[in-house]
Amino acid sequence: MEMVFPKDFIVGSATAAYQVEGNNTNSDFWAEEQAEGSPYTDKSGDAIDHYRLYRQDIALMASLGLQAYRFSIEWARVEPAPGQYSESAIAHYKDVLLACYEYGLTPVVAMHHFSSPQWLMRKGGWGSEDTPDRFANYCKFVFQRLGGLIPYALTFNEVNLPVMLREVFSNIGLIPPVGIAGEAWAAPKWRESAAALCGTKVDQYITFHMISDEKKIQLLIEAHRLARQKIKQLSPDTQVGLSMALSDIQSVPGGEEAAAAKWQQYFEQYLPALEGDDFFGLQNYTREVYGPVGRLMPAADAELTQMKYEYVPEALGQVIQKVNKSIKLPIIVTEHGVATHNDERRVAFIRRGLQGVHACIQQGIDVRGYLHWTTFDNFEWNAGYSMTFGLIAVDRQTQERNAKESARYLGQFASTKILKVE
């Protein structure tokens, strides 16, 4: 059987600057890695050297058949000191965009993907009332220089992730990949060292992943609104949105109230931020099931990913349907992926996820694209290089790239917009 998608359906893959570029020494995450007692398994170091190798990487994506590339611009590189902008950094990102066009890839740009400049921590980080204006001014500079080259922009990646981390990782017994103490949602001792490396104290050291209380959430929403305003003023044709990480929230008898509360916490409380957006970036990896006593652990025979959550590609279609009940914006799947050494399971994850997307389109839901997470095996935050999400493997000793069958599978779909299912 063949499932035919619209010809203009966007298909590609995604990366985050910090995870692929390497040597991002001005970032708050660099301080977290280097801090005394840091829980990071590895140091990012050169990462996969994408800052240098981006042109050959984009050429490789295109050769595989992919038609879109979602990447992030690193604020810490563009504005290494408050109000001081780097001409070399903006020239670099301009060439990344030009390379996308040269090789026929539609660029989708995230202005912020978790990491922030170290100097922002000296100003109170994401707890400061000045941060929305600072972020909007950074966006203004970028779009003054590059706006005409950016058709799609996400102001922020996964605005709701701090709240999800607090809940999800404490429930499944893991240290969050960004290093937050899941059980208490408190800053452990190593954060004092990270704060010192940023030149500040721990009470000022408020990273993006600590935006989980009402006051900080409202500051984040204001930052999104101000950034969107600046972007649209400078580049009216750029489509602007944000993305959210959304598990498929399910319940068994007795868990309906808990599930509804989680959906409100993860999604509905952020709805005011979407007013005025051009599209919604939806990101999904798994599901969460709630019962009378709260979140239920996966069944003993459940297939788990390397990240220890359930392998449920069908969750994507379910989440799209739930989101569509609350918003009428066009939806782009800006992340969907799986950490596994078994690439056949990645191929199946893509196929089954896209089957759900196709069903949503058939129902009249305006889904305009699918961007897989991630293009390369890369630096997965606290987990270092142990998690393999990539369509393309990387030998970090030689930086040699090796496309997996999943990359060719997604590229074939991107080229034809036809999904073949048995």
Quick overview:
InterPro entries: GH (IPR017853), Glyco_hydro_1 (IPR001360). By secondary structure, the protein is α/β, with parallel strands linked by helices.
Written description of the protein model:
This protein has 14 helices and 16 strands. 38% of the residues lie in helices and 16% in strands. α3 packs parallel to α5 (87-102). The model is unreliable at 172-187 (pLDDT under 50). The protein has helices at residues 17-20, 28-34, 50-64, 75-78, 87-102, 118-122, 131-146, 161-171, 189-197, 214-234, 256-266, 315-324, 343-362, 405-416; strands spanning 2-4, 10-14, 68-72, 106-110, 152-154, 239-241, 243-245, 248-251, 280-284, 287-291, 294-295, 331-336, 367-373, 392-395, 400-403, 418-420. It has a single domain (2-245, 338-420), classed as Glycosidases (TIM Barrel). α13 links the parallel β12 (331-336) and β13 (367-373). With 422 residues, the protein is α/β, with parallel strands linked by helices. A nine-stranded parallel beta sheet has the order 6-5-4-3-2-13-12-9-7.
